[in-house]
Amino acid sequence: MSGRTFFYALWCLAVVGLFAVSGVFAWSPFAEGGRASHGGGVHGGFYGPTHK
Amino acid sequence: MPPEPVTSAAAVAPAVRALTCPNCGGTVNLRAAGYTVTVACQYCGSVLDVADPAVKLLDRYNHALEEPEISLGTRGTLRGVEWEAIGYLRRSEGGYYPWEEYLLFNPYHGYRWLVNVRGGWSFGEMLTSIPDTSRFGDLNFDGKAYSPFFRNGHARVDYVLGEFYWRVTVGETVDTDDFVRPGTMLSREANANEVSWTRNELLEPGEIRAFGVRPEKPWPPLPHQRSPYAGWFGTAGKVALGAVAFLLVFFFVFSSSQVVARATLPIAADERDQNATVSGITLTRPWQSVEIRAQVPRLENGWVDLDYSLVNRATQQSYVASGAAERYSGSDSDGPWTEGSRTRTMTIASVPAGTYDLVIEFDGKRWVDPAVSISSWGTNTSGWADADNQPQLEVEVRQGGVSGGNLLFALILIPLPLLLALWRHVRFEQARQDESDVGRSGMAALFTSNSDDD
User: Fold this and answer.
1) Which of B79, B57, B308 minimizes the C-alpha distance to A41?
2) Which candidate from A8, A33, A41 shows the least CB-CB separation from B236?
3) Minimum mean pLDDT among B60-74, B101-115, B175-189, B349-363: which range?
4) How far is Cα B176 from Cα B191, in angstroms, rounded to an integer?
5) Measured between beta carbons, which residues in chain A are less than 8 angstroms from residue B348?
6) Domain-by-domain residue ranges, chain B?
7) What is the DSSP letter of A24?
8) To the nearest 10°, the Cα dihedral for B258, B403, B292, B313?
9) Which residues of A touch B350 (CB under 8 A)?
10) Going by C-beta distance under 8 Å and a sequence separation of 6 or more, which residues neighbour residue B268?
11) Could you tell me whether strands B15-20 and B173-181 are parallel, antiparallel, or unpaired per DSSP bridges?
12) pLDDT for the residue numbered B15
């Protein structure tokens, strides 16, 4: 196995490992809400259509 | 370079022989005596004809000699055979693009060439058969195809040192054509009398250390230099597929979700703040994401502010999320339009097991088109929050597992190094092929932009 393949396999292992850990703890960087001490998602304060 | 003489153990045994330079009187050693035809004196540079026992002076020089990178007489083992460097040529394309060639000798294996182009080294062997021409100008030799790279070149000898098996002189010029495949180059050299073919195999950087040379990384790459990424994509692709398969299996096993609570709440028509509590939500998994889906079926040209607090009854730890369901529609010069959604889903991550209460603070608002005159306010709403059209907020709470966003993120990260390697491979191939007289082909041509063409 070449060094390049080894490091790529290591990269894949890290991504898969982090994905599995995030799954076990149900964590996601894309979640809107979280613990109150960290603050929740906040509406931008602007209401109304924005397409025009 | 002309065809080499046949050497064998049965032939006259080569031996080191010393002779005196008729120009400077220096002692010149012949390392392939019996095969060598000309030798350039190591002291004055004069070229001597040693085919005849009476040494003749072919070219007279009286100049300080340059010491080549590999001193003549140096021995090194390449591919299992020990070779001795006996001759040195510096050649160029009419004074441009110089390169060096060392003539190697082994009494049982004959002659070989060590070619140095910009610090990249190749091991050359004269061919005893002529390559076949195939379609599209390619060559076939030993069942392998070679693509044209340099056409109609003119290689000139600029400097000579040591001994050679033909009468070599400074200024000697031959016509050249070169054909390549990864790792190998076929070179054709022709003059008025003969045509010769040489196969040059690119040496690995470590191999040339046998002659005490420190290898370099030429850039742009040599014509027959193999992209360091070319053979890697197959193996890396298998690794990537394995990782993706694991991700998908893990996701489908652990991504299921189930409804743990539902509630329907009336929204006040007077736009005041309201709150409600959905009690006794039991979350059973050690950790889970909690997805709260709010739907306002009659929402039109208005919004509903939503603030959630999911409070653990045992610890009072609160998990919060805020957002709004917004839905607008209208008509303008482009025709009717709509924007937003009557549904808003929010996710709270990493919620531990326990019994929770969901406190919902909400208020419904009407949106009035500012383009409409003030006198029309109150009349241009869709009626979604009117007293006779009581709107409702439908809330559904689900406990879930692995996030789909995480999967997507991982699926993007996995091939990222592959894409980076692909980009570097293309840049390598473009730099290599840009040296060619033929132009880009394959993937290098595929990613050629108009500015590159210029």
Assistant:
1) B308
2) A8
3) B60-74
4) 9
5) 31-34
6) 17-224, 226-255+402-454, 258-401
7) H
8) 80
9) 25-27, 31, 34-35
10) B274, B363, B364
11) unpaired
12) 63
CATH of B258-401, one of 2.60.120, 3.40.1130, 3.30.1660, 1.10.3470: 2.60.120
Out of B350, B365, B401, closest to residue A47 by CB: B365
* Of residues B355 and B451, more confidently modeled: B355
In this prediction, residue B442 has a pLDDT band, given cuts at 50, 70 and 90, of: confident
pLDDT in tens, B409-421: 999 999 999 999 9
Burial class of residue B374, CB neighbours in 10 A (0-12, 13-18, 19+): exposed
Q: Which helix (H) or strand (E) holds A27?
A: none
Q: What is the ipTM, given to two decimal places?
A: 0.80
Mean confidence (pLDDT) of chain B: 87
pLDDT in tens, B297-319: 888 888 999 999 999 999 999 99
Percentage of chain B exceeding pLDDT 70: 89
Residues of A with Cβ-Cβ distance to B289 under 8 angstroms: 26, 28, 31
Compute, in degrees rounded to 10, the torsion defined by CA atoms B331, B335, B339, B341: 90
Q: State whether residue A10 sits within 8 Å of chain B by CB.
A: no
Per the structure block, which two tokens stand in for B291? Answer: 């997805």
